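Quick review question:
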């Protein structure tokens, strides 16, 4: 069955087609959920919520642009929805934002470790960091998605980078001590 036929069948609530769509895209969308979630279990819950939303809104997909891109946007928005109503964002003065560069030795940090320390960031920092750094959204887009101002987005990104840099420096110092 072609992807277009699968989508059309999902639009008429064909459970077999929904199951097939889930099998096709769940692993890719799970990695998206994992980036935005605090842990593995929360990512699993978010994936289920995302697919419920996808199946509910699939008739809104008009075969324009990438279907996978549409799935990813729906998934990110579904995950972010749980944070929008929480007061996890601080209002900040845009003038006090300091850019932080993170320097890490090539190959010194595993992807699993990086994902772990990103997941450990406070919600407000993790969400902005992932949207900006990993998914390439602008601060304007992030502000709209999270219902915050642009200054808050910039500030939260700077703070996330600062925390990550401190964590990586500590990790590297510990590794250096252990290798002595």
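Suggested answer, residue by residue:
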């Amino acid at each position: 069955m072609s992807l277009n036929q699968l989508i059309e069948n999902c639009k008429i609530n064909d459970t077999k087609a929904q199951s097939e769509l889930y099998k096709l895209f769940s692993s890719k969308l799970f990695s998206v959920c994992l980036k935005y979630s605090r842990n593995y279990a929360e990512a699993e819950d978010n994936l289920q919520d995302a697919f419920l939303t996808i199946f509910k809104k699939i008739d809104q997909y008009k075969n324009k642009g990438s279907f996978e891109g549409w799935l990813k946007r729906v998934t990110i928005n579904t995950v972010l929805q749980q944070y929008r109503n929480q007061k996890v964002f601080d209002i900040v003065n845009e003038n006090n934002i300091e850019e932080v560069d993170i320097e890490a030795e090539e190959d010194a940090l595993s992807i699993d470790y990086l994902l772990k320390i990103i997941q450990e960031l406070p919600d407000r920092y993790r969400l902005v960091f992932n949207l900006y750094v990993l998914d390439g959204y602008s601060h304007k887009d992030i502000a709209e998605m999270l219902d915050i101002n642009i200054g808050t987005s910039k500030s939260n990104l700077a703070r996330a980078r600062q925390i990550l840099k401190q964590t990586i420096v500590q990790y590297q110092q510990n590794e250096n001590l252990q290798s002595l």
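Why it works: Helices lie at 3-11, 15-36, 40-57, 67-84, 111-119, 123-134, 139-146, 150-178. Residues 3-84 form a domain with the Rna Polymerase Sigma Factor; Chain: A fold (CATH 1.10.1740.10).
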